Amino acid sequence: MERKANSTNSINEVYWTENCGIAFTLSVIGGRWKISILSFLLNDKKLRYSELKKRLVGISERMMISKLKELELDGLVNRIVHQQVPPKVEYELTELGHSLKDILVLMDKWGENNMMKIEE
Amino acid sequence: MERKANSTNSINEVYWTENCGIAFTLSVIGGRWKISILSFLLNDKKLRYSELKKRLVGISERMMISKLKELELDGLVNRIVHQQVPPKVEYELTELGHSLKDILVLMDKWGENNMMKIEE
DNA sequence: TATGATACTGACAAAAAAGTAAGTATGGAA
DNA sequence: TTCCATACTTACTTTTTTGTCAGTATCATA
């Protein structure tokens, strides 16, 4: 979570995300959980925190919150808070989030088609 | 490099790459360097190890080799060895590698379009 | 006989990402 | 008055990825 601003690692990442659209896109959707979150929101339109968590098999509270927060900060998802107890918070894609649809669909197809060819 | 086969981390990754095309695709092109390597090979057709390295600003020998090896193992690049001294080794995309073109192009466009909207 | 060019290797260290476990706040229902 | 459900927090540990640095092999050429 804490990034060392001038580690070589960080310098390299910044260089590439600033100079390459693909690297930038990857920085936004990369990692273990973000694409799964985006996919579920793409299908289900709007989901409560707890509903999303149920779908994300294996995820921990910490990852849930931290990835949702990153996605929100990046403007890909909206966080809708209902003032009630117990709390109810829903998540949905923003327009920007929706604009990733083509990429996600293509990636899904490619994966489905080639999973069997590549044995990792 | 060494993965603990039954860490939760690894279990989660396996679960998602096996059950989700997108996650699988991400496992193949994710990380700091792979997409850059693929992009350069997509543009330049065929490149020597040293030529590729020059383009990959900031990369170390270790990362070069290890990422090239992974890409080769996954069947995305061909490694062409010329029997001569000093050594000459060229890398090019396979057909499978080329089939990622649409995804990479879309990702590039999306990144270029949205880089300014998202300030990280 | 030493040097140079190229494509690597390997042991180790730092950084980043992911996971664990135990909390907190709220107000209505039992 | 204690308990419950939900959406988080927080401090800490483990795992994974990335980077550093100093090698190695080959043979033609100087």
Automatic annotation (TrEMBL), chains A, B:
Residues 20-119 form the HTH hxlR-type domain. GO terms for molecular function: DNA binding. Pfam families: HxlR. Keywords: DNA-binding, Transcription, Transcription regulation. The keyword Aminoacyl-tRNA synthetase does not apply. InterPro entries: HTH_HxlR, WH-like_DNA-bd_sf, WH_DNA-bd_sf. This is Transcriptional regulator. The lineage of its organism: Bacteria, Pseudomonadati, Bacteroidota, Sphingobacteriia, Sphingobacteriales.
